[in-house]
Amino acid sequence: MADDFPDISIDFFASPQRGMATLQRKGNLLRSTDKAVTNAMKFTSGGSDTIDITRYDAFAFIFGNGIKALMQAFRHHRTVDMQGKVKARHLISRPAASAVATGMLARSMAVSIGKLIHEVLPAPLFIVSTPTPTSAVAADNQLWKDAALLRPIMLDLLRQSIDALQAELPFTFIHQPEETIIKGFTDPAYSKGSMQLSQTSREHHDDEPHHMNARYGALMMTELVRTFPAGAPR
């Protein structure tokens, strides 16, 4: 990726699960008091356990936002047009579904940390969609049996929630490219060979549906860089 974008320098900070939710702002720094989180940040960034907000021209987040999160949210409560092979336990109205989707994004780690950053400077913010799982997730999970039916509905709810929050916190959302989707699921070619977030650098097993590989990462990074405004600092 460095050869493809020689004028861009990127630092990665990550922690398993919801570790980054522990970040707090102290002056210009984002830091965590959780030792496991600071260790993970050091490992993924190459040595830094804090984020100096003033060092960066833009920030991108991948924190569980997208189709996957919405599918989980509507596993029991669905609108009439969400009814497919799996019947909902409770029917809700479309306005109620929209309110749920908007509330989820408003309370997300990405938006929370984005607000901390904007307390210091108005840097461009990008929220990158968490990848949709591969079809292996449907083998023992009824939730995903209607993935092809639900995907366009969830995308519409997601777009509405993005629009609703722009006045509160301006950001650009990077959607998963449709070219990576097959019948509502991510093409397994983008999953095989994915790596665990650990110092052992072990691969996930082939049927692990939630994590994507370097090919997918490069594609999403390209989508992100293409979204940068022309002439913006790099």
UniProtKB/TrEMBL annotation:
It comes from the Bacteria. This is Uncharacterized protein.
